């Protein structure tokens, strides 16, 4: 009798599931509020962006206020270029703070004014920095010219790599820069506040962002980490925010970095080991054009996540430290709009929101599988100041108007407590999504559910990689073991008619100079909307309720129960 390997069995199972699945099987969802799976950790409450100076600008402040408001816990924010030399001018994939310069004698001059403007904006809103120690100030760079770049969409990505990406000419000064920054932060915000932050060194050292060797990066890390710990021994610092985590080269880098922190001689202290309080890595999908249609691909993103989790789980010293997906997105370039990159045309409408719901649910599944300490997944998407309306950047808002994807995070903000058992006969298995994304003859009608002491949330999406329209499908939802006799049901929805400023803008004629009245209408359309008014329902003697909905393709619903 032929014996099959475990991998072969999984593959055949996935193949049978895909080929025998029903073109239009009615969607049935079962939720068991009595069966807890794990805490509903707010891993989604992390955001990031390239351009730090947008933080304190008009629309940046507005969006940060909305993000802070939607989350029941402090939101962490990560941004690049916090130590880059310049006048603070905001531009695509560029930012500067002028935090470090030198006088005529080569002595350090520290200026925290713009860094403070950025962190003040976060702290005043109850947010926390995921503070990136980077990039290289011009006065410290071994390759200081050219330094300022003027990249625009359509230009080669490598054009952004200038003097800020090089190693320091003096590692001791580099370490002291980190020390002075943390010391200043404690003086400004207090020790307890700074202890609640996360610090990390650089970004994607295995890619374009680092123009030194691997050992030079480890030296960079050692000196920065030593500076942080000298200023605040209880500070939390780590790395390495590797790019393309599942690739062989990235795995080599990550393992080498962990081993360096555990067993190598520290370049800064000459002792064994370097601080490693968190491990961070990146995960990206890969959409493409098929004819004139955008086709998403979540498989690379989920494989990156699985690889990062697996590596962390393989060392006893990293299995339980916080794991942060430092960038977790459908693809890699937030500032590449759909005019120059047509495969990014998913970003304005509901495809981005349904993709986000479907992939975050799988992140939780991977957390369960690897039993690691999953702390956060940074959505590398913010806003772009003074840019065309709905240009197709990977952003949460355009010109101060929220896009549909932000409403998925508003839905997440209404879920809490513990994740509970929830199944759908139309949800693709995790293995299938990791192997071939969601490409079968049917859409992924999936579910993620949570329960608090006085409420429950059931998130449902109807997602497919192919950006096609399709009729709304009936979904029969049964919610079991409700600990109350009556509940209030609120049905939140994202689709072409709800929580969707983009569709309203298109119906206006896609104006690039909307009137004040039109902007007010768009702002209202960008908020999370409900399907009708909340309803009071009686719970039967069997402690369950049945809810029947119609869910359009690329739509997302949240059924919120309160009692």
UniProtKB/TrEMBL annotation:
Signal peptide: 1-23
Main EC class the enzyme belongs to: hydrolase
Key words, A-Z: Glycosidase, Hydrolase, Signal
Hydrolase as UniProt keyword: yes
Glycosyl hydrolases family 39 N-terminal catalytic domain span: 28-526
Pfam family, one: Glyco_hydro_39
InterPro entries cross-referenced by the UniProt entry: GH, GH39_cat, Glyco_hydro_39, Glycosyl_Hydrolase_39
Gene3D superfamilies referenced in this protein's UniProt entry, alphabetically: Glycosidases (3.20.20.80), Glycosyl hydrolase domain, family 39 (2.60.40.1500)
GO MF terms, alphabetically ordered: xylan 1,4-beta-xylosidase activity
E.C. no: 3.2.1.37
Stored SUPFAM superfamilies: (Trans)glycosidases (SSF51445), Glycosyl hydrolase domain (SSF51011)
Family: Belongs to the glycosyl hydrolase 39 family.
UniProt cross-references to PANTHER family, sorted A to Z: ALPHA-L-IDURONIDASE (PTHR12631:SF8)
Name of the featured protein: Xylan 1,4-beta-xylosidase
Lineage, opening ranks: Bacteria, Pseudomonadati, Bacteroidota, Sphingobacteriia, Sphingobacteriales
